[in-house]
UniProtKB/TrEMBL annotation, chains A, B:
Residues 1-151 form the HTH marR-type domain. SUPFAM superfamilies: Winged helix' DNA-binding domain. It comes from Aquaticitalea lipolytica. This is MarR family transcriptional regulator. One of its GO terms (molecular function) is DNA binding. Keywords: DNA-binding, Transcription, Transcription regulation. PANTHER family: TRANSCRIPTIONAL REGULATOR, MARR, TRANSCRIPTIONAL REPRESSOR OF EMRAB OPERON. It comes from the Bacteria.
Length: 151, 151
DNA sequence: ATATTACATTTGTATATACAATTGTTGTAT
DNA sequence: ATACAACAATTGTATATACAAATGTAATAT
């Protein structure tokens, strides 16, 4: 993993705020790349995977697009198109809501559930690995700092 | 800013590693959105802005595409196309390298430099603002933890 | 009852990114 | 000198995201 100093070769000392922001960008890339390399063989992007997990969390109850969008970690401008791709792969189903035909209900399929259950231990593993350089105490500190940061 | 609990309504307690990863994703989005809203009026994306700063750091000396890519915070699969857009806006110039015609040298223009000099204090400001919930000590802690995380 | 407004999703356009294939140039091996 | 490998950038295809406009449905106001 590249360090700040390696990347910003020509720079003087950066203000702490900028260093922090850059470090968050780098950490984000680090996590996303690792996740993607695990999900790739399952033909899923990180975002698609997260939506599938959201749908599973509903225990077979459907969610409409806005509900999904609200629960997404990376706010998605285009849930429609993301769902389109999950549909093509057979991981979700889509129905117009009977009570309010403006809304679209989305379900996870058996195939989607099966894929998630295969992925669960793999993802747990990579998440552990990616954070293994920090102790539990340090992880808690990091969490608290990040939460406070954007409070 | 949304909290983890608000987003993941249906979830049980998450493992600390997952919480940390999600928190980094959220922080990344937070920073990027704020930066973008500042850069938007200047017709620049966050990534384009960063490349311009890299080029300025060279003090008028040119960089080829690979050098730029190495210095970029968000590794860019397509520096070519990013530079294309900076070119259209007149912020950079592009020449084939005489010594090695495979390489393309890229310079920042006066217009690019002028735009950066206008942006400098604005960016400093927003960076301060975005991190103002943390003390200097906390920012240092956060930096150290993030560095250690991906060491 | 019709017009207007608000709601929910879709579509279009643009940028950033991932990855593979292609093009053109240079260096090397024989 | 020619063939082949390595290098540097470009192009093509796909996904995610930002934002605006368009479509279709429901609620309301008169």
């Amino acid at each position: 993993m590249k360090e700040l100093e390696d990347i910003l070769k020509t720079s003087k000392t950066l203000p702490l705020s900028r260093k922090t922001i850059i470090n968050v960008f780098l950490s984000n890339t680090y996590f996303k790349d690792e996740m993607l390399s695990v999900l790739k063989p399952f033909d899923l992007s990180v975002e698609q995977f997260n939506v599938l997990r959201i749908l599973r969390g509903q225990n077979e109850k459907p969610l409409n697009l806005q509900d999904i969008q609200d629960r997404m970690v990376n706010k998605m401008s285009n849930t429609t198109r993301l769902i389109d791709k999950l549909l093509l792969k057979g991981f979700v189903e889509r129905n117009t809501c009977a009570k309010n035909r403006r809304k679209i209900e989305i379900f996870i399929t058996q195939d989607g559930l099966k894929t998630l259950s295969v992925l669960d231990p793999i993802i747990d593993d990579i998440e552990q690995q990616m954070t293994s350089n920090l102790s539990q105490t340090e992880l808690e500190q990091l969490n608290n700092l990040l939460t406070k940061l954007k409070a």
